[in-house]
Amino acid sequence: MARPRPSARAPRPTAAASEADPTALAPVLEPEGRALLDSLGEHRAADALAVSSRLRAAGHPPERVAAVLTQADLRARAVPRLGPDARGMLFTRDGLEQATRPVVAALHAQRMAAAGARTVADLGCGLGLDARAFADAGLGVVAVERDAVVAAAAEVNLTDRPGARVVHGDAVPWAREHVPAQADAVWLDPARRQVGGGGSARVFDPEAFSPPLSVVEELAATGVPVGVKLGPGLPHEAVPAGAEAEWVSVDGDVVEAALWFNAAARPGVRRAARVIDTRGGQATTAELVSGADFGDSPGVEAVGEEGMPGLVGEVLHEPDGAVIRAGLVTDLAVSWPTPARQLDPHLAYLVATEHAADPLARAYRIDAVHDFHLKSLRRWAKEAGVGRLDVKKRGVRETPEEVRRQVLGGSKGGRAAAGGRHATLVLARVGERRFALEVTPLD
């Protein structure tokens, strides 16, 4: 009997295969719909049913009411990320997921202005967040968008930016025909998810982006300043020769990896980490750069298994995610006046005798070093009266949630009796052993 033939491997997702965004914009592009949307004020999802009934009873068509409530919900979701200006903007569901934060878009604009750009072609402009920032920096902008729905939203969002215009069309053919004649710099934010069927799949292959990375390199070959926003998981081997790669984090979250070409790339910089913090009410920025290629960072001493018991009283430093993604962990270590060691050559933890007080890393005083055994950690938590436990990890299989639940005895939410002390454990595999470091945050 013949064996059944194995089924063909499912094709990898490509962003170009995405379905069109289903967000209904037509009703809110009409004057009546926009006026109704703007009249709603602050929106709460819990009130949607009551508001819908009230608007329909007032004689508004169902499709207008549905579109208005969708936009009200998207605006409410956008404000924490994009700021108060979002209350006057239009969104699509997919577009909001990939929208650039204003503080980051402003950095893109500064980079293009410093490169000597006068007019930027924003290819695949999405909702126009970067285009708004380019215009605010005094640059002309041609925002090109293939999706008619998204282009309509971008046009509304750029209405008050007279230096920007929206072109509905395919970005790549437009660029091949009009760069550099109509734009002397190029910015791209390729789609990096395949959307459809009620869900989406992340695309990891840069050649499966829309447009693919090879098109970005083709545009860079024209010699104009070029920048492209990519996902923070961009593999180092995918970074083209001659490009500057910059990983950016905002308030602890790595939000993008940007590649810069030609005059937009800084001389002597191959990779960079930029850390932005807005939690103090005013944005602060710290940066670490290297001219060395990926894998060519300096070596530093490692603590290793034998040195773990002697770490009590020293300071553990956790580099920001942007530093880690850029491969700059040991570059950070050698930048400090106090010598620092890696906990293990494979872990992004640094140890120093003093607190480096660097915005590129969070710091913890090491109070005790335990072997990582759940049974003994449960006993430790009980004896120490731990009522709340934060868990961080590197190189161990167990999840923080799992460890928290088991160490605190399975209490709801991983919390023991109210009033207990707040403790932090850092779990790490060093050499062949697993350790749990009891630490106190210093930042």
TrEMBL record:
SUPFAM superfamilies from the UniProt entry:
S-adenosyl-L-methionine-dependent methyltransferases
Q: Which residues form the THUMP-like domain?
A: 361-438
Location of region: Disordered: 1-24
| Classification lineage | Bacteria, Bacillati, Actinomycetota, Actinomycetes, Micrococcales
InterPro entries this protein is in? SAM-dependent_MTases_sf (IPR029063), Thump-like (IPR041497)
Listed name of the protein? SAM-dependent methyltransferase
> Which residue ranges run through the membrane?
none
Q: What domain of life?
A: Bacteria
Residue ranges, compositional bias (Low complexity): 1-20
Please provide the Gene Ontology terms (biological process) for this protein. Answer: methylation
Q: Give the keywords, sorted.
A: Methyltransferase, Transferase
Matching Pfam families: Thump_like (PF18096)
One GO molecular-function entry = methyltransferase activity
